[in-house]
Amino acid sequence: MTGHFAIAKPVEFVDVHVDRDNKLYVDPSAIRFWANNGDFWAQGAYSTISGFFDEFLRRLWSGSAPDEKKARDMLLRFREPRETRLGMSAFGFNGSGTSEKIGHAIWISLKENPLCTLNISILKKLEDIPLFVDEIANDRVSDLTTRLIFRELASFTKKQMAEHPTLKAAAEEGEFQVWDSNSGEWVKEVITLPFVKEGTDKGKALLLVPKRAVHRNLRMSHGKYWQGEVLGSVQDDLTTYGANGKPIKPAKKDLGKREEYRKKRPLNISRTHQIWIRDNFDLLETYRQRVDDAYVPLSDEEIEKRLGPSAD
Q1: Cβ distance 39 to 156 under 8 Å?
Q2: Bridge partners of 67?
Q3: DSSP annotation string for 198-253
Q4: Residues 183-215, buried b or exposed e (16+ Cβ, 10 A)?
Q5: 3-state percent breakdown (helix, strand, coil) of the chain, nearest 5
Q6: What is the mean pLDDT of residues 242-252?
Q7: 0.85 exceeded by the pTM?
Q8: How far is CA 25 from CA 218, 277, 279, in A?
Q9: Which of 34, 99, 190, 270 suits a disulfide with 39, CB 3.0-4.6 Å?
């Protein structure tokens, strides 16, 4: 992108290829990390993300049929964003996407999930969803996060346009879907963004993303949660003690092969719920903290390697 717009490096944004997908993802847990560490942009973005999920849960719990419909629509009506060029789409960066199908899968799973009830409410963050919902991983959560923080990303892009005249020179108005926290609805909004044009085509909008908001994969992983906290809790329950008082623990590797523990997401749900009810302990919060403690942002070199050689 810097080559396309003749911008000198280093830059604050992810230097994507403008004509194809780029194998990085907007990670809400990375945004949460920076928000908790005082980053002003991340605080605004994560406030929008958490506000969306809080409103979703409020509507889900209300007992009102109209509210339940609104909760469902919150997930079904978001449109797949392609303006960032991030993620992987089967149809390329301007693909039609499957956001309604994604939203329906999330809706069904959350509505039936015991962790998402008024009395439990352990599953309460957008980034938790892939731990418990099948077929929801990097692309899906990255897409929903991007659409939710479209306004914040547009503000970041506006700042970059002020710093880089070639971006501003390519700017045009377009109508985009954004989440409006005040009304609690998806709305259309006219926003000025740089457009990438080839020849005489009308061009495609480009939304810039801060490097600190992306990662190579979502850091909240259903497999790592299963292997760490969930199997660890099973391991603790099955620990016995020898005559010498030393603990005898079954190996996680062996536990993971047993039929009752092999299905990762169902076990993630049942054990997280069981530990909360039995011990009043939030296993998921322990995992969130472990993820945050281990967080290391991608370096410029790692980002460039992930994106691959420039074709600009």
Answers
A1: no
A2: none
A3: -TTS--EE----BGGGEESS-SS-HHHHIIIIIHHHHHHHT-EE-TTS-EE---HH
A4: eeebeeeebebbbbeeeeeeebbbbbbbbbbbb
A5: 50, 10, 40
A6: 91
A7: yes
A8: 7, 34, 35
A9: 34
